[in-house]
Amino acid sequence: MNPSPPPQTCRICGCTDEIACETPDGPCHWVEPDLCSACAGLQPVLALTPADIKALELAPEIGIKLNACTSFMLLGVLQLADRHPDLSDDSRATLRRFAGILETHVSKTDNLARLARAGWRKNDAPPKLSTLILPDGTRIT
Predict the structure, then answer these.
(1) Is the Cβ–Cβ distance between 39 and 31 less than 8 Å?
(2) CB 43 within 8 Å of CB 37
(3) What pTM was estimated for this model as a whole?
(4) Cβ-based burial of 140 (10 A; exposed 0-12, middle 13-18, buried ≥19)
(5) pLDDT tens digits, residue range 76-122?
(6) What is the pLDDT of residues 32-46, one digit of tens each?
(7) For a disulfide at 39, which of 12, 18, 71, 110, Cβ 3.0-4.6 Å?
(8) Sign of the CA dihedral 109, 111, 113, 115?
(9) Of 6, 69, 13, 55, residue with least CA distance to 37
(10) Residue 25 and residue 50: Cα distance in Å, rounded?
């Protein structure tokens, strides 16, 4: 009894004959033994190998030191990225966990905590935070 061959799988997206990509023209088709028509023009500049993935899994945690201003800027970038409609649920969950860590570190006072949370609002800032007044009297609107 001969074992059945492994299913044909796209090297880019991982689709198979059983689970094809949906394109405007219908399900994808094979243009090469391991490349579907939906991915034919999307070949990555750099494809990660199983060894690359294993190296990432075994890599130790890294520590990053950020000053408060950089932390707030990074938090703002994460808050904007969270609004992207194509962000996957897994990526969104990871983003929010990391943003939560940043929020905790920068929220040293009630005002700073309010400022950190403001970026999660659709309008980016509640009315009370429309002007930021620095200790030297500088106003940022």
Answers:
(1) no
(2) no
(3) 0.50
(4) exposed
(5) 899 999 988 888 899 999 999 999 999 998 999 998 888 888 888 76
(6) 999 999 888 775 566
(7) 12
(8) negative
(9) 13
(10) 32
